[in-house]
Amino acid sequence: MNEKRKIMMVDDEADFLELMAKFFKRRNIDFETAGGCMEALDRLGQGKFDVVIMDVCMPGLDGLECMAEMKKVQPELEVIVLTGHASLNVGISGMKKGAFDYCMKPVSFDELLEKIVLAKEKFSKKSDW
Amino acid sequence: MQRIFTLLKQRLFGQSRPSMSSEELRTDFTRRYAHFRNLLTANNNALQAMAELEKVYYGGGSYRMAFVRSKISTILINVYKMISDILAMSDGKYADLETTFEKISNELDKIVARKHDFVQGPLILTLDKVRRSDRDQAGEKMANLGEINALQGIVVPLGFVITASATRHFLTTEHIAEINRLLQVFDSEDLDDLYKTCEEMQKIVMDAPLPPDLEELLHAHFNRLETESHSASRVAMRSSALGEDTAGVSFAGLYSTFLNVEKHEIGDLYKKVIASKYGPRAIAYRRMRGYRHEDIEMCVGCLVMVDALVSGVIYSRDPGEQESEVMRINATAGIARGVVDGTTVTDLFLVGREKPFPVVFSEIRQSQDSGKEQLSGSASLTYSQIRKLAETALQLEIHFGQPQDVEWSYDHQGVLYILQSRPIAATPAGTKEKSRSMQKVAVPGESVEKPLLFGGISASGGIASGEVFLVDSDKDMREFPRGAVLVLRHPLPEWAPLLGRATAVIAENGTEAGHLATVAREFGIPALFSLPGAMSVLTSGQTITVNSSGRAIYQGRREELLRQNVAKRDIMAGSPVQRIVTEALQYITPLNLNDPTSSHFRSNWCETLHDITRFCHEKSVSEMFNYGKEHRFDKGTAKRLVGEVPLEWWVIDLADGFRQGLDSGSKMVRIEDIVSLPMQAIWRGISAFPWEGPPPISARGFGEIIFQSTMRPDLDPSVASNMATKNYFLISKNFCNLSVRLGYHYAMIEAYLSDLLTESYVTFRFKGGAADMRRKAVRARLLADILKRYDFRVELRSDALLARVKKQPVEYLEQRLEILGYLITHSRQLDMVMTQPHAVEQYREKFLKDIEEMLSLKESTIGESVHE
Fold it and tell me: Taking a contact as any Cβ pair under 8 Å apart, which residues of chain A between 25 and 84 contact chain B?
């Protein structure tokens, strides 16, 4: 994790985003947040990201719809889906729709970090092709 | 992806079958290898999550729904990945796996998301109309009380129940959604966060407006009680939760109770009782006992206050000694609150269970005079009161079919009121607690050392050791470390959230009748109460051994005492979460596809997620192996290991496992041509010592034995397959997957050695073969013991063993691989001696000695000593 990574987390919970931002900042990881899908798309318009961590359950466009929109803008983007008390199948649906992996809330930081590393590796390989 | 496959197929199998350039082949192989690696990783992850789920399920400890969800999701997602990878590797050959997977994941989703069917009913029920069958509306406690009310000769206070329907009317789905959101994000291990989240959730409840129709009904029923009881202007408001239907689960003292409630307070206090569902005690308790928050619905009972002269608790059987024919009564002047709060000193009476209910023991701890006909100068109860209590308790026990824990009050007119009756939460069987009268007191001198403290009341039997942690404030509470001995001034119910972390609890005050005592018994944690001076004699950080059954506390860890203890009982038994796991496991762990040579070893025979992982794993190995064959890529793939190696080992190079410049056309490879780090390490272990012992070794020696084993798939048809009858190393420079059959055993070693610690791992799976289950289990246990010594994390289920080490330096993992190489070779001889404990012990010693010797031989050279 020495290399700087550009990561965005999309979630409608401000407290949670703040907590995650602190966590990533401590690890010197380039981390941005978006409170909803529209904001996430705006950010994507301003610059590219390697990995997006996306809460599935959000008001307005839900996470999976948002993922589809973002992939239209940047197809090689890797998305890790975040699910809470949603049904078990949400994670699988996310994978079917092109998510790289998914995590459950409450989030284990280590697990998330491991998945980000793997997603980033996959992203790099794709970008190399 | 499909396009590439089609292209590849056309190029490889087309009429002219043009050969791919070595670069093209390498690229395609790399892609396939990547899928293979992903599949193996997913396989590991899925099996590990299955093992973790099974471990908690069979372990008898506490686990939460969040854990269950997370493990099931991990399993699902990894199985899904395996399917995607095998489809990519096999050109979509096993597409029906997707259908099976979808069916299973839908079933699991239904099981995990299952909710109660809720039927809307009246907002208020009068107690005289309530029976057991009204649990869904009135909650456990009030439904029981309604049932008791209908029994001949038993009096309960007048009252009514604010039903579960009323709670649903009060708390809307929006409120619940908001609360669930808070529950989702809070950190369960952080007590500060627990308190903060609880406060927020309770505020949501308190801020919710009481619906006007409900408020009106509350007042109307309060007025009715006043009229019917002629005098009542105050009620007791008691929680009556719904879903507490498991035997042995007390839910004691978790929710709020309010006494002497006046009419103008009833609305607010109703909300407070409801809000207590989200108190720290309740949240922590549900988590420990396997209840989801949605499993519990709150109802509230409003009972006319009894003008109590004397109150208390009667146990129709002594919880400490249920086999003895004794009932136990704790009594105190006034209302019963102090008894169950653990704050009041009570009189104790042990009463025979048969008429005329003789008092076999009494201890008058209170000094007040309760009037005439006393048992002794200052006893709180008269003999006739005791007899009436005993009769009533037995009547309740007979009615409910099991020993009861009954709360009661005598009013000033001498009328006995029953306030609550529930099954007794007993001390776990086997912890040999003696009730007070018959307690075998640990006599100083009997042990070598004098106890630090001695005496008190054994509120929950058992023996445990840990570091003292004095708790006198909320702040202390938040810092309470797991595994410590909780030392308190008063055993208040407020401390209950700590019982999941504490190894024992000591208090200067309190009795066996308090809520905290009940919860301690439920959790099987020793509790020693009424021990004055505990807070000053004991200091935080000091290690002690608590012998609650012997009413003594010793300095240090006393192994001889701890050995007398037995395991805790299954704390989750019968809980909703456990039921969910029981059902879910049916779709996850059973393995139906265990014989790869069987005609049933097909994708459409997969019934469980475990079947799918087994199938995908087997087929992925075939796909990798057949790659060369199907793609005319045999040159340079599977090669037979030759040289000083007279046995059948095959090696498939996945990427860069052979030394550079090796003749890729050769069908053979020598051990010195292999540069795979993990394979070299395993080989060092395999070849470190000659195999010896029964069966008698032939003149041709070790190699011959191994050779026979590898060539005799008939020894264990359950695991025989094309892949399994021979032993295959699949290697790259850093990776090795060895599937090995040595006679009766099926073992798999997989390792990835990398300088990046997070990537490195060694996994070992071992499954016994032909011997009967008991012998197989003995062998697996022996291997597990040895591996544990070398810091493997070991999961053992019957004869199946899974051992792992990960995130360690390469050199360390290489040593682990050497150990595994040694064990797969030499554990075979155990088959002959499994019924002789003495011989097993000898082998254990020999194995350990050999391993130590092997590890100390730095100069061990690859492939050197396979022969005798």
Answer: 83-84
Q: For residues A100 and A106, what is the distance between their CA atoms, to the nearest angstrom?
A: 19
Q: What does the pLDDT read at residue B482?
A: 86
In terms of CA atoms, which chain A residue is nearest residue B65?
A85
For B101-134, how does the pLDDT look when each residue is reduced to its tens digit (9 = 90+)?
Answer: 999 999 998 888 877 667 788 999 999 999 888 8
For B34, nearest residue in chain A (alpha carbons): A122
pLDDT, residue B731, reads 85
Give one word for B736, left, alpha or beta, with left for phi > 0 and alpha for psi -120 to 50. Answer: beta
- Test B66 with A106 for CB contact under 8 angstroms: yes
Of the pLDDT bands very low, low, confident and very high (cuts 50, 70, 90), residue A126 is: low
Q: Is B527 helix (H, G, I), strand (E, B) or coil?
A: strand
DSSP letter at B778?
H
**End-to-end Cα spacing for chain B:** 52
Q: Is B106 exposed, middle or buried (0-12, 13-18, 19+ CB in 10 A)?
A: middle
Assigned token pair, B626? 């057949």
Give me the mean pLDDT over the B57-65 stretch.
75
What is the per-residue pLDDT across B712-756, written as a single tens digit (0 to 9) for each?
333 332 333 333 346 788 888 888 888 776 555 678 898 888 776
- pLDDT of B232-263, one tens digit each? 678 999 988 876 645 455 566 778 889 889 98
ipTM for the complex? Answer: 0.76
CATH 3.50.30.10 residue spans of chain B: 436-562
Q: Are B645 and B867 in contact (CB under 8 A)?
A: no
Q: Phi/psi of residue B384, each to 5°?
A: -65, -35
3-state secondary structure of B365: coil
Q: Is residue B664 helix, strand or coil?
A: coil
May I ask the CATH architecture of the domain B308-423?
Answer: 2-Layer Sandwich (3.30)
In this predicted structure, the answer to whether residue B295 has a pLDDT above a threshold of 50 is yes
Kindly state whether B73 is in contact with chain A, defined as any CB-CB distance less than 8 angstroms: yes
Q: Which residue has the tokens 């040289």?
A: B643
Tell me the domains of chain A and their CATH numbers: 6-61+75-115 (3.40.50.2300)
Q: Which of A13, A88, A105 sits opposite B112 (nearest CB)?
A: A88
Closest CA to B526 of B450, B616, B460: B460
A117 touches B: beta carbon within 8 Å = yes
CATH classification of B124-304, choosing from 3.40.50.2300, 3.40.50.2000, 3.90.228.20, 3.30.1490.20?
3.30.1490.20
- Count how many Cα atoms sit within 13 Å of the Cα of residue B620 in the half-sphere of its side chain: 30
Residues of A in contact with B70 (CB under 8 A): 104
Torsion angle (degrees, nearest 10) of CA B275, B278, B284, B289: 90
- B436-562 CATH fold: Glucose Oxidase; domain 1 (3.50.30)
Q: How far apart are CA B433 and CA B461, in angstroms?
A: 5
Give which of B62, B54, B68, B197 is closest to B501, Cα–Cα.
B62
Domain with CATH 3.30.1490.20 in chain B: 124-304
Nearest to B113 among A15, A83, A87 (CB): A87
Residue B863 has pLDDT above 60, yes or no: no
Q: Are strands A6-10 and A30-34 parallel, antiparallel or unpaired?
A: parallel
d(CA A6, CA B549): 60
The tokens for A71 are 């992939």
Q: Provide the mean pLDDT of chain B.
A: 78
Distance from CA of A57 to the nearest CA of B (A): 11
Phi, psi at B452, each rounded to 5°: -70, -40
Q: Where are the alpha helices (DSSP H) in B422-494?
A: 474-478
Select the residue from A9, A18, A89, A121 to test the B interface by mutation, using most B Cβ atoms within 10 A. A89
Cβ of A129 under 8 Å from any chain B Cβ? no
Instruction: Please list the residues that pair with B417 across neighbouring strands.
Output: B155, B409
Q: Rounded CA gap, A30 and B795, in Å?
A: 39
